[in-house]
């Protein structure tokens, strides 16, 4: 697949309903994407990240069950995407679509052929207060993985809902106590043709130069 940098950046979407749940993803393709992800910036060049690639059907099923439980609680709380921007018909319609696709992923996560979980080693435990420096050393690499996957015909979705059961998932995957999870990236070939840029707020509504 040949794709320009601008197209890659504007058409890498969170893929949920269009993940191909039946087509295996070669591990070498996942490795290619992770090799590129490791070129992302990391604070102090410490490279404290770790990547758990889950392909075992039983473990994926178990993660999917925790994820569905977390989604049900999140949706029931009234704070999901569907509840946002109800007074704006144009944005409300988009939120409905996002919520529907998120519900689909919650129902089928365990069937997605590859789960990539980005983690950080935290020898002294999670810091109190501002944790931007810690997670800022992981999340750019996770996004790079998503971009690399998109360029290779794979779909991904950025999600953290499983973290409501982080300790249970850590036990399932035998993670050391000083390794904390930051993001779950379900990964599969996507169905359909391609993706278009998403409708976003106009830049001038969110841009501030020198002051608010």
Automatic annotation (TrEMBL):
CDD domains: Nitro_FMN_reductase (cd02062)
Organism domain of life: Bacteria
Gene Ontology molecular function: any one: oxidoreductase activity
Domain Nitroreductase, chain residue ranges per copy: 11-177
Keyword annotations of the record: Oxidoreductase
The family this protein is said to belong to: Belongs to the nitroreductase family.
PANTHER family, A to Z: NAD(P)H NITROREDUCTASE YDGI-RELATED, NADH DEHYDROGENASE_NAD(P)H NITROREDUCTASE XCC3605-RELATED
Protein name (record): Nitroreductase
Organism encoding this protein: Nonomuraea rubra
């Amino acid at each position: 697949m040949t794709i320009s940098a601008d197209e890659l950046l504007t058409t890498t979407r969170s893929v949920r309903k269009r993940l191909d749940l039946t087509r295996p993803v070669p591990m070498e393709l996942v490795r290619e994407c992770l090799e590129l992800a490791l070129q992302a910036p990391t604070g102090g060049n410490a490279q404290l990240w770790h990547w758990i690639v889950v392909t075992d059907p039983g473990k994926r099923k178990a993660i999917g069950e925790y994820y569905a439980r977390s989604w049900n609680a999140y949706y029931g709380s009234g704070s999901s995407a569907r509840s946002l921007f109800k007074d704006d018909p144009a944005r409300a319609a988009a939120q409905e679509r996002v919520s529907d696709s998120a519900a689909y992923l919650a129902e089928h996560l365990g069937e997605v052929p590859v789960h990539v979980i980005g983690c950080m080693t935290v020898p002294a435990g999670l810091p109190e207060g501002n944790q931007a420096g810690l997670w800022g050393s992981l999340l750019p690499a996770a996004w790079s993985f998503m971009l690399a996957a998109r360029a290779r015909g794979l779909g991904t979705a950025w999600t953290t809902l499983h973290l409501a059961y982080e300790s249970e998932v850590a036990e399932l995957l035998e993670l050391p106590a000083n390794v904390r999870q930051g993001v779950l990236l379900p990964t599969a070939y996507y169905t359909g043709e391609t993706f278009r840029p998403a409708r976003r707020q106009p830049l001038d509504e969110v841009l501030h130069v020198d002051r608010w």
